[in-house]
Every structure is written in structure tokens, then in C-alpha cells.
Amino acid sequence: MLRHLLVIALIIAPLATLHAAGGGSHLEPFEPANGEKLINYHPHFQWRGPEMTLDDQPECEIQIAADSDFRRVLATDVIGGGMNRFYSMVSLTEPREYFWRVRIQKPAAGPWSATFRFTIVAPEKRFTIAKGSDSTMVLETLRKAAATAKAGHTVEVAFEKGDYTLGPMEDRVAFRIDHAPGFRVEGNGSSITMVSATLFSEVSGSQNVEFRQLTMKWATPGHIMMEVTKVLPETREIEVAIPSSYPVKDLETYWPESGNNTFLIKVHPKFPGKYAGGFRAGTARTKLSEGVYRIGSADEKDRGDWERSHWQVGDRIAATHYRPGFIQNQNNDKLVLKDITLVDTPGAISGNGGRNDKVAYLNVDVVPDTRFPDCRLAGHASSEGGRIAAWIEQCDFHLLGDDNYNAGYFFDYELLHQHDEPTLTMKIQPWDELIFPGDRLRFADQKTNRAVGEAIAVTVDTSVKDEVKVTLDRPLPSLPASTIASNNQGTQRYVYRNNRQNGGRGHGLKFKGYGALIENNTFENIAGIGIYLGCPEGPQTIARSADMVTVRRNTVTLCGWHSIEAGQPAARSERLRIEDNVIRDSKDAGISLINVHGALVRGNTFESITGFFEPRESYRSLILKDCTDVRVSGEVLKDNRVKANP
After folding, report:
1. 125-220+323-406 placed in CATH 3.30.2350.10
2. pTM confidence score
3. Which of 54, 286, 344, 523 is a plausible cystine mate for 222, CB 3.0–4.6 Å?
4. CATH topology for 2-120?
């Protein structure tokens, strides 16, 4: 699989600076290849084209048809932001031959590309899970199908429409798809209830995997709610009770004292999903009776948590932590989730596995459990790495207990030795994103949180375990021993459009890497930043950046901190377009840019509609810090609290 990914990466890496053969605006399709046979109902389309610049990010029109003359067009779309890839919301479920072509539509219409054909074929092996099958029968079928796929066959598992239960089971994963050449789970509108805290599937080293038309539930709720019954300010404690509607009365299940990724958060009564305050995982708690607890501490380290929360009798707080969720996605090429609903999912949609290629989430919803009408959580979202990052469209992420989609979740490389000015050896971990020739590396000093250089990798040697030796295209000055590097090419061509997020304890959308289109989304009632580009992971010294990103026609309402933020001191971000967005009731700034060099910020509207903030509070429409070549125009101010950009 890694060899396969290496070949893909070597093909894709030059696309950042590629001009189309023959010049002009002609595009060259290459995936699916001409004549390729697939079991995918949602193939990944890709083409080569002219270089993108800040001012010229061409929009491409794609057509998929049932005939070579394109009289029976099945799907058509226009992809902006300089994107050269596409996933269709339309399912190509009929086994037959299809045709596709692409052209530049804007700024001026170009010629159609050559027409490529591909064929959707039936999988080699098919398995059916009959309605009424018990857990043992379902698991046996899924595991047998996975073993058949590992033996080299393309496989489909189809559920007859019904309600199924899996578990209880001791395994961490219900079934594993490993090194499959093609695998499809066809739910046909079925629902599956997981009795155990178990992943439905772990997918690794595979290609062309699809999960379709499924609703996933968990027998144990992914969270519990509590109501404050008493406030004890002298000891900075509160007493809480779990409502009778929640079947689990044990707080430790959701808020273990020593647990990681564990949250106890205050929910806003008027703005669902607007979380504020709470307690950290290690805060002292005492069980007073079944479902009744005293929580808090007079310890000075907890003073800030207490003061921010402003506790009152009747307040609601939610407890949740990560447990196994839907799937674990690791080292796969083309994995599609289509028409999936996750009800109060306790873990991520797709756990971070890194090095995934061309993931697509199409109409994936994370929703609350209707058994609990007063709930304020629906689960968590997702993290992904990968060189060709996810395509996410028409998804609804509702009342999240953590950050939403986090594109570019991988670690950095620590400097081990600088052999000479252009040659370095760095430490690399198994979970790190690989470096390939043509990638741009950004270097930062962990001690000062400042950039110290950047260069392009010319040669890469990974022959020594846990090390990578890189020759760069330019000499670098003597680097501090505390230098780290990040691979800005690690996450490429990310698309997030026509999605909705209402509520979130963390940030809305986070992206690091090269090439992203973020358009026509809504973000509402989120505690953190709505759209966060070039954001760090872990300590602030990690050198993340965002390059060639278009953020347009989004609506960001009542998101904390800044509504849209890009950049950080340790790594320069560049070529950003932030256009025609509507920002409503921002907190600290509508748009904040830090260490951004080259940006268009135009046509953005600032409104006030929620009444959340006091009229005397104010914020800036735009804050610039350590930036150059930022062009601002066309601000529309409809909020009396806004201080316009000078």
C-alpha cells in the first residue's frame, strides 16, 4: 500500500506548479483512466491543468454521461478554487460504461478535454445479510466477506433493509477490511445498533471502499446530560443530577477522572451547541447518591474554569469522551461514505489513520439521539491525514462535543543533524506524513515559535529506520537544534462545500496544507473559530500553514474568538482568498490574519442578528498582524458593533 501511495504522490506532487501540455486552458483527464473498470459507485475524478495563482484560480466544469456524445448527462458540476478533482453526489449504480470530460469554464470557457470512458462492473463476490439476522450471523458474514477481499477479490456485502444489532463483543472492531482491492457495504437504508463500545469497521491498506445508506446507533448513549441543583461558591463546587431520561447514571463512564479526550461542558440554554465553561477531566468529584454528584475544587488551578462558567441552579452540563465510533480509516486509497447517519456517535466518524488518499464524505450526518429530547450533544466529527485530502459535501454536523473536521492531522519532523547547508537528517515517526521530492518544507524554531526558513525537497532517503535524509533546493543557514519542519504539501486539494455545522465545543473547520476550497457552508453556535486555516496541533510551535485556499460564500454565525482565522507566527501562509462570506455576531474579530503573505479579502458582510452580545461590545472586521500584500475591498457593515478596517 505504501508503494502504491508513493507512486500516487510522485504523480500528484508536481501538480502544484504544473502547466497544461500545449499551454492555454486545455485540461488533461487521467483518473479514472481511459478504459478503467471499477466497482465504485462514486469514482474519484482528477485532471491536470494550468498553474494556480492568487489572482487566477480557474473554475472547471465536469460532465459525466451515459453516452460518448454527452446527450445523456448524468452529473455535471463546476469546481472552483483551482481544484482539479471531483466527487459526484450522484451515485452511478448501474453497471455499464460511462464517459467523462472536463474544461475550464471561468474566467473564460476553454475547450473540452479528451473524452475518457470507464465501466462500473459488478463485484466478483457478493454476500447478503438477510433481514432478521442476529449478531452472530451478521458478524460471520462481514468477516467472511473481508477475508474474501483480502484474498484479492472485489466484494459487496448487502444488507436487506432492516434493523440489526451487533454485540456485545469483546473485540475493539466488529470486522476489519484489510488490503482489499474493492469493498462495498450496501446498507439499503438499514440501521445497525452497536451494543459494545466497538468500532463498526477498521479499514486499512485498501482501495475503492464504500459504505452506503446506513444509520449507525449505539446502545449506550455517547454522552449524558446533568442539571445543576446547587451552587457552592465558597468551595467552587456544584451539585448535579443526571435526568431520569438517561439510562446510564454513572458519570465515570463519560467523564473518567484520568481520561484523555474527555469533556464536561456547560451548554447554552438558548443557543444549542454553544458550549461555554465546564471542568477539566481531573477535577475532583464525589458521588452523593445514584446519578448525583458534587464537582469542583478550591484548588487555584481550577479558578479559571469556575469563573468562566458562571454556574447557576438549572444549568445543564454534558459529559462525553471519545470511544470507538464508526470506522478507523488508515492507509487507504479512495474511501467513500455516502448517505450515512451517525446517531449520538461517541467517537469520530472516521478515526485519524494518516496517509489516506482521496476520502469522500457525501451526505454524512451526525445527529442527536431523539430518545433524549433535552440533549445538547450528537457526538464527534473526524480527523484525517492524506496527500489528496477529503472531499466533504452536504453533511450535517450537529451539536459536536469537539472540533469538527480536522484536515492535515499529522506530526512534524525534528532536526537530528544538518550535514551541510542544503542537506538535513530528521526524525520521522510511523504516523508522520511522508516527504516526497517536490514537497515544500517549512522550518521553525520551537523555542521562539518563529519561522527560520523554507525549501523544496529535491532528494529523499528513508533507508534508515525512523529517519529521513533530505537534500534541499537551496542552502539554509545554520539551524537551531530545536528546529522542526512541516510538510506543507502533506494535505492537498481539500474540498468542503455545502455543509452545515450547528454547535461545537472546539473549532468548526481546521485545515493545514496546500490547496483547499471551502464554500457555501454554514457554521453556527461554535465555541471556537468557525474556519481556521494554518492552525497548530498541540504546542503552538508546530509549523503549520495554509497555501492556495479559497474561502467563499460561507455564513459564520456566533462563533467564538475569530469567525475566520488564518496563519500563525511559526509558518507563513499565502495565496488566500476570503470572499463574499457573511459573518454574524463575531466575538473578537470577523477575520484575523497572522503572518499571511498574499491574500484577497473582499466582499465580506458583517451582520448582527442574534442579540448574544451587549451593544457596547465591539470587534474589528479585520485584524492583520505581520502580513504583506493583503488586498481588502468591498466590506459591507450591517453591525453597529463592527469597527471597520482602517
Report:
1. no
2. 0.91
3. 344
4. Immunoglobulin-like (2.60.40)
